[in-house]
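Chain and backbone:
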Amino acid sequence: MNPDISMNQYSFTAPARLKVLIVPAYDISNKQFKTYSKFLKSVNEIRLVDLKPAQGIFNPQAYPHGRVVYNFQSFTDRNESILLHDFEPFRKTFGVIGVLQWTDDLTEDQIKKYLKGLKKEYPRMLLSYLFIFDVKKTANISKIPNVAFINSEKDIEPSICDFTTSLLESLSTYVSSYQHVTLRSPGSLGGGIARSQTIEKQKRKISGSFDLTNPISQEKVKIHRLKGRKAKLQANFYLLSGNLKESLNSFCEAIYNLKHCNDFLWLGSALEGLAVTIIILSFLEIPFGLPPAVLTLIENSKDANFSPFSSASPTASPRTSINSLGLNQNQQPVQIQKYPLSSIPRMISQIMEKVIFYYKMSMSQAEDFVPPIVFSECNLRYICLLSSINIEGDFNCSVLSNVVKSTPLSRKEIVNDYDYDNSAILNSLKDIFDPNFKQQTILERIAIYNCLVAIFSSLKLFRKRAFVLKELLDLIITSEFVSLKGSSYREISQLDQTLDILCESYGLLAEPPTKGTLQLQLLEAAYTFHKEAENYKKVIQYGSIFLKYFSSSMSPPEQLMIYKDIKAANSTSEYDCQYWDDELLNSLELSSHDESKRVVEDVLCDVNLTLKNPFAFELEITDMEILCAGSFPLKTIFNPKSFSKNDMHEVSDRIAIILPPNSLTQVSLYVLPCSSGLIEIDGIKATVAGCSNQIYRLYEDSNKVETVTERVKESGFATGSISKETEEKRIVKKISYDVLYKQPRLSLVDVKLQNQWFMLLEGEHNKFQVVLENTSDVEINNLISSCLDSTIEPLNAALNTKKNFVPNEIYEIEYYLIKRPPFKILNKNLDRIPKNSRLTLEIETLGKRGMKQATLLLEYSNQRVKEQIDYSRTISIPVNITVYPSIELMGCDVIPLSSNSNIELENHSKGQQCWKFLKSVTKDGKHTITDFCLLSLDLMNSWVDPISIRVQCLLDSSTDPDFQESLTLDEEVPEDTFEEEFTIVNGKTTRLLIPVKRMNLSPEHLARRIPSLRNKQFIVDSKTPEEEQTFIKHAFWYRYELLNRLKACWKLKPIDKSREREGVVDFRGIIFSSRKLESLAIEKIGVKTLVIDSEGEIIDTSKAKLGKFYTVCVTISNRSSEPIFGMLRHIPISLSANPSIDKKILYNGVLQHSIEEHIESGKSKSFSIGIVFLKKDEYEWGVVFDELKGVKSGKASLVRQHIQKDRVYFKVY
């Protein structure tokens, strides 16, 4: 539904909006009235803190945090809603604003007269007010009560504030009249509030389930009912006036009293008002609290932990004034809490479940039953709230702003991959379409259908949307609701939108539309309605559909009638009218005046057109010109004699061409190509029948057109007959000619290098500039760069030879070919060179081993139609380069670490930074020493000067996809990054120890094939053994992971004022053997041993005692993807031969046993054996796990032995 009509009529917070009528007060144009109304509607929210003090109970100073939200409307209430005003006050229109435009003749007496007439015309309004717009600053006017003078837009808000103050005072007087009134339910008032015929069924369904009532006296029931209803009505008015504090208190008091007397109808309404108040308080971020009695009522019995609705503990402060609610004094005081936003949906859901429950309970009452419109709109408002939450994917500030202020959501519809629970929406939908639904008025049902269509569209529930649309279509056609007699502006607007949605859903707005009897009836209804409503835009739209697609079902007089209607609407409407038949152009031929018969620039060409008019009226065509694809400049000439070739001007003769009815007409004109290139003539542009100037394409086989006498039948709307035509896909026909246009010329001005020569160290990166000039008068708009160097040819030759490289070797060659170019343009955004101008390219070069020369290639052109013109010129910029070795990787190794490894700094003469790092990362207990290994790198300085090196090694792999290609170190790295700086003197080799966190790559990761940087097709290697292929993959991915952590840069300090040189150390020479992989990778089957004493404490095995009982605990961890089974073997060894080991250790258990059950993937299992040392000696305790398979089948075989790497050493005293 369009929110401009009623500010989102079914918003969840609609009960909190004051309804005010906006009407024209005197002779004012419809356009001006809409403009002024739009100004007023833009200021629909007023803060109470901005208002002046007002007399009565709704004084804004009593609650300055509140806001009054208006629902400005331009239509009056329907009579049937008056009976609901005492039950739901928000349905009443409280005030009327008369809109008036200032004139110099307007006097004070006239203004008072208009105000008096406004009060007389709307006697039920609490406040009548005049807003006079466009008041001149020089106007001599005096202040008049209930009259606002608007000089500019900034005066609107203060004027509405004054209006609000007066309205609140009037509202106070109005509410005071309810003090001695007995409030009755809408059903007891009669007057069209329909009853359901299924009351007895509801009675039986509800009464047979459970009983919520306690026997109390009739007198107490009457007292509670009286108090509850008055408190509920008072709360509604507080809510409308913006006093949320009193609204919350009154709703809670009403709920307490109405629950005691089982007044289900008013209790449900009070609970709904409470939900609205909570939503607005949440939007304003105001803490609130609910009495325990209310919390108990709305809580689900299965979840007693209702407050504070989430694990987060809100800040609470006790409130001592809760006694005003009249609740039990022994109950706990209300806690004012700032609830987390995530807890609000659950609270609202529980409240709304109770609302629907009590409304259903009221259906069994004789008089206090819920009116069908109240029940339906309550469910619909709740559905709107749920749909907003589902569209956003969360209950956030955007949802709150949408619900409270009707601002648009951040999304228009739900995302495709969002899975949500729509059970609450479906349950509320069932409640809407209960047996009472058809007892509502046609307008009410149409409005509900219309809102559901919009909701289901945004939620992408297309089947339910189709069901609602079908019901809506049946309702409109059977009720003949196209008549406008007695209809309000709101009804017209709603039916306008409804008809549009129906026409779209039944294919009438598609291209081409669906044709059928039902579609024709719907189109006739829509056209008749819009014609009677003087909706010129829609008259043009639906009339064009009639003429374009349904002309065969119309007689010539009917065609002429619709044509005249469209012309009349076009002359009075501000909308552009598009000509309805896009097949105006039937054929087109072009011939050149050039001797070669080729289309040449600045040479006239003849164009012969065939235009068709298949209708029963003549058409006038003006402003015709020939069109071509793309941006090719082409001039259309009607009179070649008045064309001057020297002046190159265009002759703009306005020649009108008349097409007779039912005819094909030949038209001749001329065109002039004003440039060169590929020209594709595919249509014309013209003004037809006074419509807007638009494009008409030329389609294949369009000359095969049936005559009008064959297409038009003598039939009208009454017959409903439609001719069956075969719709075919139309293909645009293009007449193409290729004319080459001028191309630019690029020249090399300067390479800012001495003799165009570079001396670089290996890995060094440096910058230089290249100056280019476009010496032509054509812009270069297509500039593509590429690089060549002397290393590419041998690398390509190696790839192209028949030598059988393994995949990791191929990857390395491709890496140096693709990922390590010799040049990189730093200002690539400069891809355009204007005519006769210069461009300076900033280029960074990289020193690659074996590179002697590098060339920068630039392909350039001026592309007007890029996808069709394949033309470019090339300029090469060669640079001679000499590369000397710098830092070379001479060797590498991976050293495992065990729990016995001593990382104290005083125990190591080298690698101080390494041991310091290991000590820092293991001291907090998050990591152990066995989580790391040492990467030993031998780096040699092959240059003649000392070189400083800075190394970085991340604890985990970098997320930067260009980490390996980066030429600089990251300045901002995680705190747990290992860094070390050192200097290598010339000609010397230094061993660098780098702590590396061991890697646990999944089997799926390791099984991935090695990628091809050239995107070559993968070929299965049938020659290499499978075990070797597996090792190659494992080595590649572990090395890839390591290179994503490790980076080093070197720097050469300047000597004798020379430039500072810096570069990157190439670690791609690291090669892994199986032993290195075992040290680097975390074992898939882990075996870990701990020794504890009789008290369960882990002991220092170097200080074991003789004769004391110890327990050896072995934990087997399965990090593989499959369950494992096998045998566990303990292997104790004595370092002295005599006596035998059996006489030195006493065992409580067996040294070899089965693990009995499989250990699942990702699980661990522990085993223990008790020991006592009988002789002082030194011992080594080893553990081996033999992984077996085929045990269940009786054919057990050894898969692999897993040996405990961190062995335990005992020294017994």
About this structure: The chain is about 30% helix and 25% strand.
